[in-house]
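User: Please fill in residues for this 308-position structure.
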């Protein structure tokens, strides 16, 4: 389908990066990986040395999204297609590869100028998975780090670029009620989506990252026992189940200015299933969720006005 096998890691900058050192373990039972050379707090959810890296910075900002390919041949092939598409691929030097904890790395940008990376051979020798509280672990492996969702000015345009240039396949398209536009969901492995785009006119930025638990109990414990349930002021959406990927989850504002979706039981799409994208219309009073997921409207500080 594509050289890109899965979402590998995400890096952000934040003036409140140090809060992640306690926030992620206490809230979601994540481990801490090895610190970055610049003092970045790195979050570990499986055998990979890290999956999220929160760097010190003057503002909340996306720093990079790392897409994993399986080997150096796939990286060469992807680099050639990125060059042809005008995405400005550049081979990283040894210092940047070591900073990311990978063997080979290519940097590039998407059609809106957002910083992407493709890499192969990520380090996984720091520590075995050993959560700070009882936890059944996260769904990663062949599906990689959960998923990433962006607010974009044109979801169809963004999706077409990612399918044409990066080889993603469209899973679902959901028509939402105004002021939101359509939402497009794309996959590169059996995970329902590794990336999605929410259309908001004139806006661009990171909306949320999804962490998928192996156990519903771990989601419920975080929601009720750690965060205090429905009354937590940092919630974007209360506990519920989606119509599209059928995930049971909630959304919480985090110290780096975007949202974390924390959930369980995402719908896998077998690689052998050659289906057309589902078009799900939830406008004009139609049910937007199987149940729950009521909005508590909180700001997303990483989404900002975009002008070409």
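Assistant: Residues filled in for all 308 positions:
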């Amino acid at each position: 389908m594509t050289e890109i096998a899965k979402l590998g890691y995400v890096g952000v900058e934040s003036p409140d990066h140090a809060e992640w050192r306690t926030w992620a373990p206490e809230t979601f039972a994540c481990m801490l990986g090895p610190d970055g050379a610049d003092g970045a707090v790195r979050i570990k959810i499986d055998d990979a040395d890290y999956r999220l890296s929160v760097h010190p910075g003057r503002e909340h900002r996306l720093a990079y999204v790392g897409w994993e390919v399986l080997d150096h041949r796939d990286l060469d092939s992807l680099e050639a297609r990125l060059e042809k598409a005008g995405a400005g691929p550049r081979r990283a030097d040894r210092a940047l590869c070591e900073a990311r904890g990978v063997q080979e790395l290519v940097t590039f940008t998407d059609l809106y100028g957002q910083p992407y990376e493709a890499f192969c051979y990520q380090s996984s020798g720091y520590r075995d998975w050993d959560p700070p509280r009882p936890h059944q672990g996260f769904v990663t492996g062949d599906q990689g780090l959960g998923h990433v969702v962006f607010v974009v000015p044109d979801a169809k345009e963004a999706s077409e670029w990612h399918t044409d240039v990066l080889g993603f396949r469209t899973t679902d398209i959901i028509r939402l009620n105004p002021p939101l536009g359509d939402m497009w969901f794309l996959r590169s492995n059996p995970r329902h989506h590794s990336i999605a785009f929410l259309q908001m006119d004139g806006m661009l930025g990171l909306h949320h990252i999804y962490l998928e638990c192996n156990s519903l109990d771990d989601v419920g414990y975080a929601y009720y026992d750690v965060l205090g349930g429905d009354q937590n002021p940092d919630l974007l959406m209360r506990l519920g189940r989606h119509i599209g990927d059928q995930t049971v989850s909630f959304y919480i504002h985090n110290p780096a200015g975007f949202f974390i979706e924390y959930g369980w039981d995402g719908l896998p799409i077998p690689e052998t299933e050659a289906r057309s994208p589902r078009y799900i219309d939830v406008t004009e009073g139609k049910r937007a969720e199987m149940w729950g997921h009521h909005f508590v409207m909180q700001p997303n500080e990483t989404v900002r006005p975009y002008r070409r």
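For context: The chain has a mean pLDDT of 95.
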